[in-house]
Amino acid sequence: MMRAFLSVISVLIILMASLVPVHAEQADPPVYIYINLWENKLYLRTDKGEVLASYRIAPGAVDTPSPIGLFTVTKKSLNWGGGFGSRWLGINVEWGTYGIHGTNRPEHIGRYVSHGCFRMKNKDIEKLYPLVKVGTPVIIDGPIMGHERLTYRVLVPGSRGALVKLVQNRLKAAGYYNGPVHGHFDKHFERAVFRFQKKEGLAVTGQIGLEDLVYLGIVE
């Protein structure tokens, strides 16, 4: 059931690719990065859907999942070294610092091992780096829980990530939350969670658990 629900998200993300504006400096033809966390692969595609290149990646570990959604490359850097490898492509995730980068542990590529970033072999990101400019759209598609074996997560004050952002969207649409949809479970959002749970007759915990996720239609 969970996979079926998330397939709808996947389709929406792919369809929205054509709506993401391309930076004025973008090469011709316009390109975007598509990251598929079901496959642990990164694709460079044209706006027509043609695949120009594909690479294996290592995304976030179970407890430090990678972001899901629509983002943009905001920074390019050379030779970060160490665990960040030879190249860095920063993306504008609201709840933390995330990027696509190289690694000094290429044997980990294909596994869920990072702190949320997307690791690539140095030789691969060195090929990708000159093809991507600041402003390039980045579409990240995958399980909203961060790992396909997880059916839900408990969100508590201090939690961050795509699931927090999704719940914020739902509570905002229902009129319980009027703050920014930024993926941070802060004090303002905690108060909204209390209001939501009390009004809807749910257990008033100030946390988002399985019962709340089911009630919101996020999991079944």
Automatic annotation (TrEMBL):
Residues 31-141 form the L,D-TPase catalytic domain. One of its GO terms (biological process) is cell wall organization. CDD domains: YkuD_like. The keyword Protein biosynthesis does not apply. Pfam families: PG_binding_1, YkuD. PROSITE patterns: LD_TPASE (PS52029). SUPFAM superfamilies: L,D-transpeptidase catalytic domain-like, PGBD-like. It comes from the Bacteria. Keywords: Cell shape, Cell wall biogenesis/degradation, Glycosyltransferase, Hydrolase, Peptidoglycan synthesis, Signal, Transferase. GO terms for cellular component: extracellular region. Residues 1-24 form the signal peptide. Pathway: Cell wall biogenesis; peptidoglycan biosynthesis. The keyword Glycosyltransferase applies. GO terms for molecular function: glycosyltransferase activity; peptidoglycan L,D-transpeptidase activity. The active site is at H101 (proton donor/acceptor), C117 (nucleophile). Transmembrane segments: none annotated. Belongs to the YkuD family. This is ErfK/YbiS/YcfS/YnhG family protein. It comes from Brevibacillus borstelensis AK1.
